[in-house]
Write a structure and sequence with these properties.
The complex is a heterodimer of chains A (199) and B (246). Chain A is mainly alpha-helical. Chain A has 2 domains: 105 residues, Orthogonal Bundle (Rna Polymerase Sigma Factor, Chain: A), CATH 1.10.1740; 93 residues, Winged helix-like DNA-binding domain superfamily/Winged helix DNA-binding domain (Arc Repressor Mutant, subunit A), CATH 1.10.10.10. Chain A is 76% helix and 0% strand. By secondary structure, chain B is an alpha+beta fold. A 9-stranded antiparallel beta sheet of chain B has the order 1-7-4-3-2-9-8-5-6. In chain B, β3 and β4 form a beta hairpin. In chain B, 47% of the residues are buried.
């Protein structure tokens, strides 16, 4: 599938960011329909990243459930002045997933898996069938941006983010100095930052 | 200096990815308390890196949760009244999650249940403390009054391995003097690091959640300071409490 034209992309993303804000405002006013719509929009992505990080169905379910309940209980935790709702919520899910993994002390068992991550830039045709357009657009951009990273940078980034590994453990795993891990991580984040802001 | 910001941005990148530990995590905590709030460049970098952290989730394939998840969430929403009642267990996790969100998105290194002025949050933090105390290897350390500080005002510190948080609680903490507030410090080898913004008790209640790996520190101190004045070491002039972390 070809990438959408820039004007289509901006329209889609802009409208959906605004819809997120409206729905979040509804949640703040205890509107359950707004909550259910936010759930519908983000649950599949939230569950996907929770599964990827935890590798455990039940833990991933608990992570996602807790994240949505946190949104309902304390919607004020999201401050629109600090960024978009999507990033806020998915970051919350990721944060809780990493916490869960470390609590469960399963990091060591997952090390091998982290070193053999499924290709993040691969296409899954089934995704497009049921996914909202705005997530599909941004997903393509994020995956394309990851694909531009040098392999060494992308490796440390994925081990940290999807593997839930600390920089110390990444250095041990790869047999490289921790300073190299830090340098590669920062270089990767800077490149992604520039690439995605240009989108 | 450019060199300083290179080092700081390395730490902010690791912080946004939740991949710091040891001295790097301590240094990031210190920067988030002391440097980042006053540095526009670092605030922008942190915000961008944290937004990236959210966007990276999109690189994973979405997955269908069980159909029972939304009904379960609805039940949990129904179980906990919005106000006036003690939350059940389901709410505690949610409250903790909101605290994590504040830390993750705001760059804060301290979440103050008493400042949030929310009954559920306070109850949630209190029950998180109980939950931490049940964890294997947990420790509860009294933080004893120093000098003329009222003896009945002892605080307690609770932490547990893997939780990577410590909690501080008191039910009868005296009000600091006019224009004063309390500062939390963590110490290692005689060096003290202020953690988070200053705080005040609310009706004598202190409930703090500090997202920090307590194993990096050997001592804890809470001191009364002049609010708004930068401090480099704990003051012993007014109320203060201290304890050792094993």
């Amino acid at each position: 599938m070809e990438s959408p034209a820039p004007c289509d992309r901006n329209t889609v993303v802009g409208e959906d960011d605004r819809l997120d804000l409206e729905l979040h405002r509804g949640v703040s006013e205890r509107d359950r329909a707004a909550f259910d719509e936010l759930y519908r929009r983000y649950v599949r992505q939230a569950y996907g990243v929770a599964l990827r990080v935890t590798s455990q169905d039940l833990i991933a379910q608990e992570v996602v459930q807790d994240a949505f309940l946190a949104l309902w209980r304390a919607p004020e935790a999201f401050d629109p002045a600090r960024g978009g709702f999507r990033s806020f919520f998915l970051s919350l899910v990721h944060h809780r997933a990493v916490d869960a993994v470390r609590r469960e002390e399963r990091l060591r068992r997952r090390t091998e898996r982290a070193a053999n991550l499924e290709p993040a830039t691969g296409e899954d045709p089934a995704e497009d069938v049921v996914e909202d357009a705005y997530l599909r657009v941004r997903r393509k951009e994020v995956r394309a941006a990851l694909g531009t990273l040098p392999q060494a940078q992308r490796q440390v980034l994925e081990m940290a983010y999807f593997g839930g590994m600390t920089q110390v453990r990444i250095a041990e795993q790869l047999g490289i100095p921790i300073g190299t891990v830090k340098t590669r991580t920062l270089a990767a984040m800077r490149k992604l930052r520039v690439t995605l802001q240009e989108e | 200096m450019a060199e300083d910001h290179e080092r700081i941005e390395e730490l902010l990148a690791g912080y946004a990815l939740l991949s710091l530990e040891g001295e790097d995590a301590a240094e990031a905590d210190r920067l988030l308390s002391e440097h980042v709030p006053g540095c526009a460049r670092c605030r922008r970098t942190l915000a961008d890196f944290q937004a990236l952290s959210g966007d990276l989730a999109l690189a994973t394939a979405p997955a269908d949760p069980p159909e029972t998840m939304l009904p379960r969430i609805h039940r949990a929403m129904d179980e906990v009244p919005l106000e006036g009642h003690r939350p059940r267990r389901g709410a505690l996790i949610a409250v903790a999650a909101s605290a994590v969100a504040l830390v993750a998105m705001g760059g804060l290194s301290l979440v103050m249940g008493n400042r949030l002025n929310d009954a559920q949050t306070r109850a949630g933090t209190a029950l998180e403390i109980i939950s931490a105390m049940r964890s294997s290897g947990s420790q509860a350390v009294p933080i004893a009054p120093e000098g003329d500080t009222p003896q009945e005002s002892a605080l307690i510190e609770v932490s547990a391995p893997q939780v990577r948080r410590l909690y501080i609680a008191s039910e009868n903490c005296p009000e600091p003097g006019p224009g004063h507030a309390y500062q939390l410090w963590l110490g290692s080898g005689g060096e003290w690091m202020p953690v988070g913004p200053m705080f005040r008790p609310e009706d004598g209640v202190v409930l703090l959640e500090v997202p920090v790996d307590v194993s990096r520190f050997d001592a804890i101190w809470i001191s009364e300071e002049v609010e708004g004045t930068p401090v480099s070491e704990p003051s012993t002039e007014w109320h203060s409490w201290s304890g050792e972390l094993s």
